[in-house]
């Protein structure tokens, strides 16, 4: 039994030695494999301005996303005391849905500050989305809102994985729809 164990150990040692020597030959030496993971790429894909945006008006901006990615949405306006609500969803809501707060938004920011407002989405699939802005009118009882007619600038960035197939015009701004209670 001892001779069988010794023979097995010799075979294992010989196999290890042959394997080690095979790595010393000229053609069998390979450099280490280095895997480089590309960093996500962010680009500004869309910008728009609304020069005359009165209080108590909703603006819905259609965004057509043709690549999977993360959107960053920056909204800025003129007056610091304005209450600008910002939303993003997959539904082009009616005035009744917007006023009744029944529109299914993916993101919502209902506050006066910060100015400018910057929102980030989770990873979105290619589809049509709607960026909705609301210039909140002054409510004397709550102190929320303002009487300011605003100029609003919006910038949309898209961050994609560089391994993903990128289509030209990954984010396109479609039609801008003004939804006013006066209509």
Molecular structure report:
The chain is mostly beta strands and 183 residues long. It is built from two helices and nine strands; from the N terminus they run αββββαβββββ. It has helices spanning 2-22, 95-99; strands spanning 41-53, 57-65, 69-77, 84-89, 105-109, 117-124, 127-135, 150-160, 171-179. The strands form two sheets. A five-stranded antiparallel sheet has the order 5-4-7-2-9, with no helix packed on it. A four-stranded antiparallel sheet has the order 1-8-3-6, with no helix packed on it. It is elongated and about 80 Å long.
Tag the structure with descriptive keywords:
Jelly Rolls, 5-stranded antiparallel beta sheet, 9 strands, 2 helices, disordered N terminus, mainly beta, 4-stranded antiparallel beta sheet, 183 residues
Give me the CATH fold name.
Jelly Rolls
Cα Rg: 29 Å
- Average pLDDT metric: 80
Uncertain stretches: 3-23, 165-169
Structural class of the secondary structure composition?
Answer: mainly beta
Order the strands across the largest sheet as they lie in space: 5-4-7-2-9
The major beta sheet can be summarized as: 5 strands, antiparallel
């Amino acid at each position: 039994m001892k001779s069988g164990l010794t023979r097995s150990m010799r075979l294992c040692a010989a196999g290890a030695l042959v394997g080690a020597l095979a790595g010393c030959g000229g053609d069998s030496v390979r450099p280490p494999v280095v895997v480089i993971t590309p960093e996500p790429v962010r680009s500004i894909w869309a910008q728009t301005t609304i020069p005359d945006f009165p209080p108590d008006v909703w603006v819905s901006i259609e965004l057509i996303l043709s690549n999977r990615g993360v959107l960053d949405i920056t909204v800025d306006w003129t007056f610091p005391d304005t209450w600008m609500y910002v939303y993003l969803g997959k539904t082009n809501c009616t005035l009744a849905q917007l006023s009744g707060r029944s529109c299914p938004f993916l993101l919502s920011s209902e506050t006066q500050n910060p100015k400018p407002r910057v929102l980030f989405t989770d990873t979105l699939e290619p589809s049509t989305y709607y960026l909705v802005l609301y210039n909140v009118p002054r409510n004397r009882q709550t102190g929320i809102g303002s009487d300011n007619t605003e100029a609003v600038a919006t910038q949309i960035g898209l961050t994609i994985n560089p391994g993903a197939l990128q289509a030209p015009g990954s984010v396109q701004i479609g039609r801008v729809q003004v939804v006013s209670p006066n209509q």
